[in-house]
Amino acid sequence: MRFSGVAAALWTSLASATILQNGQVRPNDYPDTTISTISSYNSSWHTYPPSAPELSYKGRWDDKFISWWSAPGLKFGFQADQVAISFGNYTSDGVLVAYRLDGQDWMLTNVTSSTTHLFVTPSTTGYNLTTPANATQTLELRVTNWAYGVQIQCVHVSGGAARLVKIPNYTRTMELIGDSLSAGQYATLEGLSSYSWGLMYGLGNVEFSITAYPGDCLHEGRCYADITVINLGTNDNNTANNVTATEYYNSYIQLINEVHTRWPQSQIIVISLWSGFGQVGNTWQQGAGFLDETQNVVKYFNNGSLNQQGECSSCFVYYFNTTGILQHNDIGPQYHPTDVGHVKLASHLMQYIKLTFGWILEHTGPEVQHDTLYWYVPLAKENDEEDY
Ligand SMILES: *[C@@H]1O[C@H](CO)[C@@H](O)[C@H](O)[C@H]1NC(C)=O
Ligand SMILES: *[C@@H]1O[C@H](CO)[C@@H](O)[C@H](O)[C@H]1NC(C)=O
Ligand SMILES: *[C@@H]1O[C@H](CO)[C@@H](O)[C@H](O)[C@H]1NC(C)=O
Ligand SMILES: *[C@@H]1O[C@H](CO)[C@@H](O)[C@H](O)[C@H]1NC(C)=O
Ligand SMILES: *[C@@H]1O[C@H](CO)[C@@H](O)[C@H](O)[C@H]1NC(C)=O
Ligand SMILES: *[C@@H]1O[C@H](CO)[C@@H](O)[C@H](O)[C@H]1NC(C)=O
Ligand SMILES: *[C@@H]1O[C@H](CO)[C@@H](O)[C@H](O)[C@H]1NC(C)=O
Ligand SMILES: *[C@@H]1O[C@H](CO)[C@@H](O)[C@H](O)[C@H]1NC(C)=O
Ligand SMILES: *[C@@H]1O[C@H](CO)[C@@H](O)[C@H](O)[C@H]1NC(C)=O
Ligand SMILES: *[C@@H]1O[C@H](CO)[C@@H](O)[C@H](O)[C@H]1NC(C)=O
Question: Among 292, 297, 298, 285, which residue's Cα sits nearest to residue 237?
Answer without folding.
Answer: 292
